[in-house]
Predict the 3D structure of the following.
Amino acid sequence: MNKYLQTPEHILDLHGMTCRESKTAIFRLLSDHRYSHVRIITGKGTFREKSGTLREFVKTILKDNGIDFRPSKLSDGGEGALEVFL
């Protein structure tokens, strides 16, 4: 089954959060065990940043915890969102 055809069961929007706040929100979501597909919206970062700090921070958390994720389709946020499969 194509994972991109699935609709996420939950969307976590991290806009405006610090890395510390986003880490707390992500671990709260992961410990909930209610969802198998979540979209995490990180944003793309600011013009001054080469790459979004929050986006890279979230990717690192997911990688370090062995969690499967992919960038969202352009229509769902593209590089500013991640499709996470738990």
